[in-house]
């Protein structure tokens, strides 16, 4: 449904990694450093091949009970991926990976755009598949504009589960009608938007991620700084 036919939201919720924070770029760099420290191998994976296998393990473990911390899932996903490619795993590899996540910077337009949205009277919240201590380093780079942070750690569930969004909405004291969710991840956030029914703006940064076959977001823009224009057209700014 067009946004201009819907009421102005109280809250804007955001996915963090890939939407606000440079996830792909940071993860590629971290994996390249990890692989550079391994013994030379005849069939060593590229960073892309390694990340594809890592993502498969991570998403499977996030869906496998009991709930585990993101740090634990990262550790096990990295160990299994090393095993897949016949590479030796060291605990220091996980330390390097998790440390790199906390240090990943925002996209260039993000801080100024968050300031614009905050000044327009919106409350801003992050909903992210991570741990409190990991995301703290990223939030610290967002100019103090974020009002709330809801993590998988606090919710006891990972996106696209309804549980993490129900926890977020309850914590904020809102219904799905009171928010617009802004994200870059179709297979996690769009699946939840489809199933729960909240409004959603997709930040399509040209990474090759594909829309779900049975869901279309309410608006699509290439970068976060286009969001105020969408809201202006809807009569919200």
From TrEMBL:
Keyword Hydrolase assigned: yes
SUPFAM superfamilies per record: HAD-like
Pfam families per UniProt: Hydrolase (PF00702)
GO terms for MF: hydrolase activity, acting on acid halide bonds, in C-halide compounds
Gene3D superfamilies in the record: 1.10.150.750, HAD superfamily/HAD-like
Keyword terms: Hydrolase
Protein name: Haloacid dehalogenase type II
Native source species: Achromobacter spanius
């Amino acid at each position: 449904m067009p946004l201009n036919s819907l009421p102005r939201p109280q809250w804007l919720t955001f996915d963090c990694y890939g939407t606000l924070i440079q996830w792909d770029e940071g993860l590629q760099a971290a994996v390249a450093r990890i692989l550079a420290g391994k013994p030379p191998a005849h069939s060593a994976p590229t960073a892309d091949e390694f990340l594809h296998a890592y993502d498969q393990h991570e998403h499977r473990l996030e869906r496998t009970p009991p709930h585990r911390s993101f740090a634990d899932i990262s550790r096990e996903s990295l160990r299994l991926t090393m095993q897949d490619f016949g590479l030796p795993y060291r605990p220091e590899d996980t330390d390097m990976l998790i440390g790199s996540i906390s240090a990943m910077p925002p996209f260039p337009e993000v801080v100024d755009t968050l300031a614009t949205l905050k000044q327009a009277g919106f409350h801003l919240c992050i909903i992210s598949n991570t741990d409190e201590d990991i995301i703290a380093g990223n939030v610290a780079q967002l100019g103090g504009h974020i009002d709330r942070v809801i993590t998988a750690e606090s919710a006891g569930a990972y996106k696209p589960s309804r549980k993490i969004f129900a926890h977020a909405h309850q914590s904020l004291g809102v219904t799905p009608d009171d928010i617009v969710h802004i994200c870059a991840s179709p297979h996690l956030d769009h699946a939840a938007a489809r199933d729960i029914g909240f409004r959603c703006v997709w930040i399509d940064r040209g990474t090759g991620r594909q829309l779900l076959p049975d869901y279309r977001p309410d608006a699509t823009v290439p970068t976060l700084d286009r969001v105020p224009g969408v809201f202006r057209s809807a009569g919200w700014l």
